[in-house]
UniProtKB/TrEMBL annotation:
<protein>
    <recommendedName>
        <fullName>N-acetyl-gamma-glutamyl-phosphate reductase</fullName>
        <ecNumber>1.2.1.38</ecNumber>
    </recommendedName>
</protein>
<comment type="pathway">
    <text>Amino-acid biosynthesis; L-arginine biosynthesis; N(2)-acetyl-L-ornithine from L-glutamate: step 3/4.</text>
</comment>
<dbReference type="GO" id="GO:0006526">
    <property type="term" value="P:L-arginine biosynthetic process"/>
</dbReference>
<dbReference type="InterPro" id="IPR050085">
    <property type="entry name" value="AGPR"/>
</dbReference>
<dbReference type="InterPro" id="IPR000534">
    <property type="entry name" value="Semialdehyde_DH_NAD-bd"/>
</dbReference>
<keyword id="KW-0028">Amino-acid biosynthesis</keyword>
<comment type="similarity">
    <text>Belongs to the NAGSA dehydrogenase family. Type 1 subfamily.</text>
</comment>
<dbReference type="InterPro" id="IPR000706">
    <property type="entry name" value="AGPR_type-1"/>
</dbReference>
<keyword id="KW-0055">Arginine biosynthesis</keyword>
<keyword id="KW-0521">NADP</keyword>
<comment type="function">
    <text>Catalyzes the NADPH-dependent reduction of N-acetyl-5-glutamyl phosphate to yield N-acetyl-L-glutamate 5-semialdehyde.</text>
</comment>
<dbReference type="GO" id="GO:0051287">
    <property type="term" value="F:NAD binding"/>
</dbReference>
<dbReference type="GO" id="GO:0070401">
    <property type="term" value="F:NADP+ binding"/>
</dbReference>
<dbReference type="Pfam" id="PF22698">
    <property type="entry name" value="Semialdhyde_dhC_1"/>
</dbReference>
<dbReference type="Pfam" id="PF01118">
    <property type="entry name" value="Semialdhyde_dh"/>
</dbReference>
<dbReference type="GO" id="GO:0005737">
    <property type="term" value="C:cytoplasm"/>
</dbReference>
<dbReference type="InterPro" id="IPR036291">
    <property type="entry name" value="NAD(P)-bd_dom_sf"/>
</dbReference>
Length: 356
């Protein structure tokens, strides 16, 4: 396959390079970076020295013209950049996967939560969560890769909404991320000395993944396991999402709480529902009774680990999920989507052991 990667020097882009390196089916890779234009990957990113990708030079974005020979383009740039390239790529019959939030929401919700004007969108995008939209992804021209917190939260909660087991208006999500989730450009809030040995909540009540999660869960509530494609179902689902910055490099840890509709549900009952829901999913691991996920068991992988527990005293169900924000939360999921879009084996290049 022939792949173009825009935003190749950011954390999402570098992880994409790591996952593509050594893949025998990559015939050509074109990488873009303005900051490192004309330099070889191995000069800028020494971890690729001596690998199949090391000698490839970054092209400046000004050289972004004819990519019609590419099978797909992966866009790993900050919000607001993808729309400058997407139409041209689609016109050249190149499939596109965008890592940013630009195509995940309708324009009104985008403007409300991203505090930026939404780009004019001619192209419809499929939401790139294979565990729910696999069939739509296979035939998509443009995929909006989900946000990292959104991926973990949705996988944690989907079975509860699809089965209508909880009150959809009172969902609480406590979410924590490693610092690489904030990108590679240095900022005071992600400076080592500001985050080490501490923990703090941020964007409280205002995190941009809130409407993304609500839309996918609403769709699950209305349609159950089935998704017919096309428009999302409209239904009120409300989540209170609180995001916190963990003093680690990689990983997302989500603890989601729902109020059970049926009082007699036990942990074993809910666990059975999760096991059935995800039994055929190659990248979702539902843990046995009494076990809870751990970030180090998913770091460096495309896995999502899920543990569930019912607190019978308060009729609350807890669904806990761990992913690597750069794996299932970004590059891993993008390559899972790419495999689907190109008709390849979905797990190709993604069956990785955790670094732990
Ligand atoms: N980090 C994460 O865990 C996740 C990130 N995402 C999303 O993925 C995208 C990339 O994130 P991440 O890798 O963390 O970001 P980084 O800040 O680490 O990297 C940004 C990349 O985009 C390029 N870039 C910066 N500004 C522009 C611009 N104006 N035009 C074109 N290219 C530009 C940079 O290239 P240059 O070499 O020129 O500096 C760099 O390669 C974002 O939209 C983010 O929201 C999604 C899920 C998880
Ligand atoms: C730690 C941290 O700052 N994380 C980012 C989320 C990054 C991501 O997955 O999402 P988008 O693609 O929607 O930006 C944040 O909270 O905004």
């Amino acid at each position: 396959m022939r792949i173009a990667l825009l935003g190749a020097t950011g954390y999402g882009g570098i992880e994409t390079l790591r996952l593509l390196e050594g893949r025998k089916d990559v015939e050509e890779l074109v990488v873009f970076s303005d900051r490192y234009a004309e330099q070889a990957i191995e000069q800028v990113l020494p971890q690729f020295r001596g690998t199949s990708l090391g000698r490839i030079a970054f092209s400046p974005l000004a050289k972004f013209h004819d990519l019609s020979l590419m099978d797909a383009a992966l866009l790993a740039m900050p919000h607001g950049e993808a729309p400058k390239y997407v139409e041209r790529l689609l016109d050249q019959d190149v499939r596109v996967i965008d890592f940013s939030g630009d195509y995940r929401l309708p324009s009104d919700l985008y403007e409300l939560w991203y505090h930026a004007p939404a780009a004019e969108r001619h192209a419809p995008a499929v939401y790139g969560l294979p565990e729910r939209y696999r069939e739509q992804i296979r035939t998509a021209r443009l995929v909006a890769n989900p946000g990292c917190y959104a991926t973990a939260s949705e996988l944690a909660l989907l079975p509860l909404l699809e089965q209508r087991l909880i009150d959809p208006l009172r969902i609480v999500i406590d979410a924590k991320s490693g610092v690489s989730g904030a990108g590679r450009n240095p900022k005071m809030t992600t400076h080592f000395a500001e985050v080490a040995e501490s923990l703090h909540a941020y964007k409280v009540g205002a995190h941009q993944h809130t409407p993304e999660i609500e839309r996918i869960l609403a769709d699950a509530w209305v349609r159950g396991r089935e998704h017919g494609g096309g428009e999302f179902a409209s239904q009120d689902v409300k989540v209170l999402l609180t995001t916190q910055l963990l003093p680690i490099k990689r990983g997302i840890y989500v603890t989601a709480y729902g109020q059970l509709n049926k009082e007699e549900m036990t942990t074993a009952d809910v666990l059975g529902i999760y096991q059935t829901r995800y039994e055929k999913e190659p990248f979702v691991q539902v843990l046995p009774l009494g076990e809870m996920p751990e970030i180090r068991q998913v770091t460096g992988t495309n896995l999502c680990q899920i543990g569930v527990h019912v607190d019978e005293r308060t009729h609350t169900v807890l669904a806990v999920a761990a992913i690597d924000n750069l794996g299932k939360g970004a590059a891993g999921q993008a390559l899972q989507n790419l495999n689907l879009m190109l008709g390849l084996k979905e797990t190709l290049g993604l069956q990785l052991s955790p670094w732990w």
